[in-house]
Amino acid sequence: MRLMKNSILIALAASVAVALAATGLAESASLDLADRVVVRKSERKLYLMKGEAVLRRFNVALGLVPEGHKQREGDFRTPEGRYSLVERKTDSDFFLAIRISYPNQMDSRRSRARGYDPGGAIMIHGLPNNPTRSPEYYRRTDWTNGCIAVSNADMVDIWLMTARDTPIDILP
User: Fold this and answer.
1) Is residue 10 part of a domain?
2) For residue range 26-75, what is the model confidence (pLDDT) as tens digits?
3) Which of 17, 45, 125, 138 is geometrically suited to a Cys-Cys bond with 97, CB 3.0 to 4.6 A?
4) Strand, coil or helix: 68
5) Is the pTM here over 0.85, yes or no?
6) Which CATH number does the domain housing residue 39 bear?
C-alpha cells in the first residue's frame, strides 16, 4: 500500500514537472536540475546548487547527535564530507529516500581502525510513513539516526531536481 501511494505521488510530481516544462513555466517554478547539493549542518539547511547559484533551500533535521562526523554505526551522527546521491528508494520507512554514498573508503578505514563498523544507509528522506510524534516534533527536532530529513513536499522537489551521482557536500 505504501509503495503504491509513493509511486502515485512520484508519478503526480513528475506529471506536474512535465506540464510545467511544456508550458514554459518550469524556469519560474525552479525545476532546474541541481549539479550539487550542500548541507550546512550548523544552519540546518540543504541547498540545491547549480554552479554558484542556489536553486532552492530547505530546512532539515539531522541525527539525534548532530555535532561531529559520523564515526560508527549507532552513534546517531550525520556524516560530514563529500559523497554522492547513489540510489532512490520508494520503499523505505520514510516518504521517498535518496541514499548517500556514506561510508567512503576513508570513513571505512577510520572506523575499522578503531574497531567499529562505520554504518551505512545514510539518506535524504521525508517524514516517517507511520509517524510516532507530532508534526511539530519533526519540524523542530533533530530526530533521525544520522540521516538528513526534510518535509515530504520538500522531498518531492529534491527528488525531481537531483540525478544519480549528484555530489553532496555535508559540512559542519
Assistant:
1) no
2) 444 547 999 999 999 999 999 999 999 999 999 999 999 999 999 999 99
3) 125
4) coil
5) no
6) 2.40.440.10
